[in-house]
Amino acid sequence: AGPAGYDASFDAMFLLGFHGMAGAENGVLAHSFTPILKNVWLNGSKIGEIAMNMATFGAVGVPTVFVSGDEAAVAEARALVPEIEGATVKWGLEEKEKLGALSVRKAVSLSPGKAQEVIREAARRAMSKIGSVEPWRVEPPYTMRVQYVEEKYAAPMKGQPGMVAIDETTVEQVRGSLSELIF
Asked: Torsion angle, CA of 137/138/139/144, rounded to 10 degrees?
C-alpha cells in the first residue's frame, strides 16, 4: 500500500484533493478505496484512504502536514494529526443516494479560483510546519479487517493466504508490513 518510491528521504507528505472515508458525515463522494468496501479497520481503528496514506508514510518516518478536500477529509486528517494544515474546499449537504458504499451528496464548493487561494495559503502554512509535526504511525503487526458491501466481493478474498473469514462479508489479515496488506 502506498506509492512507488516513497521513503524516509521525503520531508513531508501533502494530501491534495481527498474525500472522507466510507460513512463519513457530510462527506462528498465519501468512500474507502472503492465503493465495494463498506468499512476498513487497521489495528482496530476505522480508516479510509487518508489514514492508510498517513500510516504508510509514517512507517518510514514521513509526517503528513497538509490535506485538502471536503470537510470530512480535513476532519478525518485532523483527528489523527491535530497540527495538520487543512484546506476545506467543499461541504457536503444531505445524502442524495448510495452507490455501494459510496455516499453521493449535494455539495457546496468554492469557486476554482477561491479553492486555489485557500489551498495555496494552507500549503504555505504547512511548509512552515515541516520538522515540527510528528509522523502518524500505527505499530506492527498490522491487522486489517475489511467489510465488503456484498458477500460476492468478499468470497474471492477468503481464499487468499493469511486471510480469515469473519462473516459473509468480512475478512481479516495480519501482516508484518503495510505493503503486504491486500484488499
From this structure: -160
Helix (H, G, I), strand (E, B) or coil at 143: strand
Give the integer Cα–Cα distance in Å for 32 and 38. Answer: 7
Answering whether pTM is above 0.85, one says yes
User: Exposed/middle/buried for 33, CB within 10 Å: 0-12, 13-18, 19+?
Assistant: middle
CB 130 within 8 Å of CB 12: yes
Rounded Cα distance between 75 and 26, Å, is 10
State pLDDT tens for residues 20-76. Answer: 999 888 888 888 999 999 999 999 999 999 999 999 999 999 999 999 999 999 999
Question: What single-letter amino acid sits at 124?
Answer: R
Q: Say if domain 13-180 classifies as CATH 2.30.29.
A: no
**Helix (H/G/I), strand (E/B), else coil: 9:** coil
| Residue 68: strand, helix, or coil | strand
